[in-house]
Amino acid sequence: MVRLHKPFLEPLGLTFPQYLVILELLDGAPLPVGALGTRLDMDTGTITPLIKRLEAAGLVTRTRDPADERRVMVDLTPRGRALEAKVRGVNDKIKSACQLTDKGLNELRRTLEALAHPAAE
């Protein structure tokens, strides 16, 4: 799946994991780093460097939560929000490249999620 996304993400200057972070933030920013990691099934050691690279690129900001200084909130910058149409359009390009319908894409997503999280034995 990563390889399939690469030609669509390179023009945006995003890696596949960065793309996933941006998608999550588009659906509900700002988010605490921990919640973002949980949603993407990434630990703090994985998500933090991703966020730092996105921040260096000017796509996100990191700020302390005024209600709880221990939490770091991640939000999109105006530049990050400006990518919304292009980022969301990647999904349609993948569907087209794979000749998938919405139903087929949902089935593929469920299959991949099942492979990523096998049932406990």
UniProtKB/TrEMBL annotation:
UniProt cross-references to Gene3D superfamilies, sorted A to Z: Winged helix-like DNA-binding domain superfamily/Winged helix DNA-binding domain (1.10.10.10)
PROSITE patterns reported for this sequence: HTH_MARR_2
Domain of life according to the entry: Bacteria
Subcellular location(s) of the protein: Cytoplasm
One Pfam short name: MarR_2
SMART domains: HTH_MARR
Protein name: Transcriptional regulator, MarR family
Species of origin: Myxococcus fulvus
Classification lineage: Bacteria, Pseudomonadati, Myxococcota, Myxococcia, Myxococcales
